[in-house]
Design a protein that fits this description.
The chain is an alpha+beta fold and about 190 residues long. Helix content is about 60%, strand content about 15%. A 4-stranded antiparallel β-sheet has the order 1-6-3-4, sandwiched between helices. A two-stranded antiparallel sheet has the order 2-5. A hairpin with a 2-residue loop joins β3 and β4. α1 runs parallel beside α3 and α2 runs antiparallel to α3. The protein is globular, with a radius of gyration of 19 Å.
Length: about 190
Amino acid sequence: MGNIKENILKMKDISELMVDLAYSSLLLQDKRISAEVERMYKQVISLEQETLKLLFKIRVHDDERIFFIELTDNVKDLANTAVHLSRQVYAPKFPSLVKDILTASDKRVIVKRISKESIYGGKTIGEVKVSTFTKARIIAIKRSEDWLFNINKLTLMEYNDVLVAIGNYEAEKLLNEYTAGKIRRI
């Protein structure tokens, strides 16, 4: 059951990130983020297939097996929805109302550039405890023309990086102050 649990947990984590990135691709109108969502979907499919193979190799009650099959299918459906959402970035006409909706919700996509005055430049996410002090979760970083998506506490932030984060209104205000250099202490 170990690998099954790990696979389902990975599928869950990836699909949640995919949804956040899908909304980010819409807000930023960035096809590269949409492409990353598509790439992540392939990971989810691979994990689902591996999990299903494992489910038929172990002895479990049929009801339990059906539950796991339905669970992996539902997580895959969420990932699939994220892909469809991110594909909206290719729409010929993008209504400005969508940006208003994405920035007005309680859980919002936050996009901030790290200024030369910010304490974030040259530090890892863990060093400056971004989520502790701002309650924002960084999900992607744009550095020059490249995107970083595998974000963790060891991810280095540089001056002029564009942070894409998820958080509420207060998190957005705090992240803005830290990235703008208005708060210079940890």
